[in-house]
Specification:
Layout (H helix, E strand, L loop, with lengths): L3 H9 L2 H47 L23 H4 L16 E2 L5 E2 L35 E2 L3 E2 L2 E2 L4 H8 L13 E4 L9 E5 L8 E6 L5 E2 L9 H8 L3 E4 L2 E4 L9 E8 L2 E9 L11
Parallel strand pairs: 3-9
Antiparallel strand pairs: 1-2, 4-5, 6-7, 7-8, 8-13, 10-11, 11-12, 12-13
Length: about 290
């Protein structure tokens, strides 16, 4: 005979079988929960990947490269420079009053004369220097200009008064062709020269025949005496002495040699520091960009 405890246990039925069923149900629920969490994580990862891809594509399409142009541009000028007008002149530069092979001439008045019927010889519309950063169709120069010293009449192998074609032959590279304004003035750079100065070209015909009338420094360019963007105004005065004509915030190097009478190096000073500098021939050297 069974005692009372055995009878009670017998009446409760197979408890071990019920515990196993509950365990299976719990395991299934846990697996489903983990699958849902994994799906959520994978979906979030896909969203993040899509956002990153979209950001990269946007940067590419918007030209996110901060190379310079323009602008761009690297460091203040510290290259060596000239203190005398004779040293700053280039012997192979076109002389005032001489004629070039393409028919243009400089009659001594300071302005370079061009063939053509356009009576307007001075741009009147302000023009920012166009960016050449996206131009890819060019030949890099054999002789870089940006790492050469600026002189009174030019920079490196480029001389004020050269045509674009003559300058390209001199450097063995391409001067980027940009659309001039209504009066034939454009500001451009040398393709493949990361520290290329800005070249102001003026003409009424083909771009290749336009004349280089002014060269503007970018950061990293300098004269032989080391004057460049970022130089203290005191260094300019100490270097060039009585040859400097100071008017307001503009310091202008005026040569003493009669042959150089129409050439200048102009430095704009802000807070006793050179903010910009360029050389060129009158009257273009005194223009505000392509705006007379």
């Amino acid at each position: 005979m069974m005692d009372e405890r055995e009878i009670e246990s017998h009446n409760r039925g197979p408890l071990p079988n019920m515990t196993a069923s509950e365990s299976v149900t719990t395991a299934i629920d846990e697996a489903e929960r983990q699958n849902r969490q994994q799906a959520i994580v994978m979906a979030a990862a896909a969203v993040v990947t899509s956002l990153i891809a979209a950001f990269v594509l946007l940067q590419i399409l918007s030209g996110g490269d901060s190379t310079v142009q323009d602008t761009s541009v690297q460091s203040t000028g510290t290259a060596a420079l000239d203190t005398s007008a004779n040293d700053a002149s280039s012997n192979d530069s076109p002389a005032i009053g001489s004629s070039s092979n393409d028919g243009s001439s400089n009659d001594g008045s300071g302005a370079v004369a061009f063939d053509g019927s356009d009576d307007s010889d001075e741009p009147t519309d302000a023009s920012d220097t166009p960016s050449t950063a996206d131009v890819i169709d060019y030949t890099a120069p054999d002789a870089l200009v940006g790492d050469k010293a600026m002189t009174l009449r030019g920079m490196g192998d480029i001389a004020i008064g050269m045509s674009v074609a003559e300058a390209e032959t001199a450097i063995g590279g391409t001067i980027i062709e940009l659309e001039p304004d209504a009066n034939g003035c454009a500001q451009t750079r040398i393709g493949g020269d990361l520290q290329s100065p800005v070249l102001m070209v003026v003409g009424t015909g083909e771009f290749s025949t336009s004349k280089i009338v002014r060269i503007d420094m970018v950061s990293g360019n300098a004269t032989r005496s080391g004057i460049g963007i970022g130089s203290p105004a005191a260094d300019v005065l100490n270097t060039y002495g009585e040859r400097i004509e100071a008017i307001g915030e503009t310091l202008t190097y005026v040569p003493s040699d009669e042959a150089d009478a129409d050439y200048r190096i102009v430095m704009n000073v802000v807070g006793d520091v050179v903010l910009s500098a360029h050389n060129g021939v009158l009257p273009y050297v005194n223009w505000d960009g392509c705006n007379s």
